[in-house]
Protein 1
Amino acid sequence: MSDAFSEVVGQPAAISMLRAAVANPLPSYLIVGPAGCGARTIATSFAAELLAHETDDAERHRRLAVFEEHPDLIVFERNGPSLTVGQAKEIVRAATTSPFEGKRKVILVEDIHLASLSAPMILKVLEEPPPSTYFILTAEEIPTELATIASRCTQIDLAAVSPQDLIELLLEAGIDQKRSSVIAAVSNGSIDRALLLGSDDAALERWTSWQQLRTTLDGSGNTATAAADRLLAMIDDAAVPLQDRQGRECNELDERADRFGERGLGRGRLEERHKRELRRLRTDELVMGITAIGISIRDDVATGLLSAVRASTSLTAVTEAGDDLRRNPNERLLLQKLFMNLN
């Protein structure tokens, strides 16, 4: 591994800035970009280069940091809907300790945009960081209440990954051009989502089922309920490729511990991340389904199969369902309500 950034997809401007910062870094960096754009990968790659810089065994430091097992890389992830005050206290404590192996310590805090309650405590340590400690924060956005934290950091902006970059990634993974193009179009710029759909042979079948859904509805509650249950069962099946990948990640963690004589650091963090990934998958699947319904309605209007007036009612229901999805609703009830209002 000559450079930890070599596995990053897209984001050339951001990578160029971070590469230039490795030799003489500033105390804090804030990496901002939409979900799935690769912020976590870029953050750990930057941490790896910071920790490997001017060390006797750069490759070892780089490898450990990329796998988030380096003793001088401390990663903080939210365990619930937000970073807690307790985690903020632990961030402050970790920042004040000396590095274990080298001259640098890196603290990576993910989803800082969800830290409004703990922000004041984190801000304090950002304003007076120890000289050997470097912060890398990631966020999907910068809420007004976190503007002060953002002002203490060097901001690195990321964009959603382009469909062309996703297509190239999928082609390299051995997926054919036609399927890669479709997956890239429905992945919302998310690398993880694209790779997951690429490993899922039933993904396009699910997309088609959502697009054709309205032809199976008759306005009755029973039919809407049956359709909701059928599609939710398909979402359950969609989790299998992710669960398979997560199992491999756990095995790889154990294998690295055996191979390099290093403790299997990060097992708890890995398991927490896996739980969040499964929750995210369900949300992504529902977003994909709702998007497919919306596209099918617009296609029917364009071909004259559906009047603009009737389409307006259905599209309003689709928009409301998308908005409701952000509030972690009961999935079955959300779909039943949506299906009852489709034409």
Note: The CA atoms of residues 211 and 293 lie 5 Å apart.
Protein 2
Amino acid sequence: MKSRHAKGDQAGIDPKASAPRDCFGTFPLSTHGVPEARRVAAWRDGIKRIVRLDVEALPDVCFQADLTIRILPGLGIISGQHSPFRVGRSRTLVADGNDDLVLLVRTGNGVLSRRNREIPVGLGDSILLSNGHVGSYVFASPAKILALNLPRAPLKPLLRDLGVTRLGPVPRNDALRLLDNYLTVLENDRVRASPQLCRTVVAHVYDLVALAVGATRDAAAEAGERGLRAARLCAIKADIADGLHRGSDISIGELAARQRVTPRYIQMLFEAAGTTFTQFVLGERLARAHRMLINPNLPDRGIASVAFDAGFGDLSYFTRSFRRAYGARPSEVRDQATQS
């Protein structure tokens, strides 16, 4: 079957968001611009066709939601924020045969109702659910959510147990933390536009999900060499970018402590990616300087000031490194940007 690709970009409930499961792309699902009396019905129809869920507003609560749904081969991602509401799978929906797994990586505090039990869930906790079981979750307060919809078949060989006893709250662990951060990779248009790169990232997500909820011994070993490494490198790069943005010194020792690994492990990750920790940090500093030099809002910013803000203490070293990376002096790049 040939896949259809689409990208929704309209405010409110986008009719394209009622796409079949093989329609890959990014779809907005927002109540913005929708009359309050119609919000729940319109939103319920939109999300039911995508992730097969019932949605119900809570009494005396103005229902609001602003989510983004990304549908990729073998993976659905829901992210955004919403007001309190109830979501679940009724007996009618369960009869459709969809037994996909749903992992709420990040959710708001509330109550999970399953098998005649009510389980309290704290803010930011994770929950593993199955579309093949009747149940519901009440979001008791406004929250930011990050959820995954995963087909059961490719995950089954990776997990120790997919029985009913495995469903429910998932204790916080390092794999969940890395998964939360790694999913930002799929916000990159370049990743989604490359089928091969997209498949690789989705495979990494499967690895991390398996590690988070209980992988078999063989799957854990393979995930440690594949998805876990990729996610750690992604988290380390994000940590470096955050440090540069705040103007902090980048120390591999402090970075390793924050990421709960050794400095040598960080060096090995970068070496496996074809570079070094030092080269990557230098490249990021130079890229930051380049962005400042071509910024039309900073035409009078001195070269020395740009170099200092990018983390360079030696102006001549900055100039040599910049010229080696971009084939022109910082002043020449500034002049070209000003003229254009």
Note: The first strand starts at residue 4 and ends at 7.
Protein 3
Amino acid sequence: MTSSRKTAVVVCPGRGTYNKPELGSISNALPAALQSTLAQIDHTRTELNLATVSELDQAPLFKSSLHQRPEHAAALIYAGGYLDYQALNTDKFEVVAITGNSMGWYTAMACAESWNINTSTRLVTRMAQLTAGGAGAQFIYPVVDEQWRPCAAKQAAVAQQLERFAGDLKMSIKYGGYAVLAGSEAACSAAMAALPRLDERFPMLLPGHAAFHTHFMQQASQQALAEWPAAAFHAPQTPLIDGRGQIWPAHVTHQAALQQYTLGHQVTETYDFSKVIQTAAKEFAPDHFILLGPGAGLGGAVAQALIEINWQGLDSKAEFSARQQVSLPYVLSMGLPEQRALVTG
């Protein structure tokens, strides 16, 4: 260990981050030293009678019917993130905390060694199956202006729909400059029709998504709690920040609490990713945020969450972009080859 190491908070991506552009990204970026780790993940998938991550990632063509099946998509996202974490150059970076967005919490748990590879691969796969079987839908809507500053009018429009469909429509994820809403299909359709159209894209329905992080997931939560005992959970070896912004310190054993949060609250209640990032900045003040793959879509949401609290004077998209124009940017995305090289080399 040297004092010249930079501190970093690691962030794991959630659903919808492994798409056609990511095909082959796991295998192509995999260091030789991590081949055996991927083999362990593949072995567990074989035991589950499911396609391995290697088979999916190395397929000649990306097929939505195959790669976006929940139990396959989740495994690709988890494996991509976990392997990225293992590839970090720990001589250059000291990871002071790990967190994630939505199902990225499972990847964070694996990175923090709360589960071993076999358990995390099985649990990620199973949770994808259980939650995909839930009812409802999910859509996303921006609540910031063009410079990523909070927009009161857009926030009010979202709040109006939540009030209008109370009980049937919930805030699913607070995702930086976006509100991810979820609920019954009827409530989502009506709310989407009522919200002002923005950028010719929003409100945007998230295809194949159920009403994640709402009471519509209660049955999935109860089933998961019955299948995965507290004994399967272990104290993290690195601090974790959960979807409420709560910190789980390293080396402290609280198996039942970790089980109840992960398979209970985390599944059925709002995931506040903005608060996650804000807590990480305030409590750990890292030199960098390192965003794991697959994909490179987390950067905007991280920046928007920091702009919301004017972190270190960060007050706009333009200012964030300007600050990133340095040799070692504050936010480093492993989904971008040039930035990946900075954290693995």
Note: The mean pLDDT is 96.
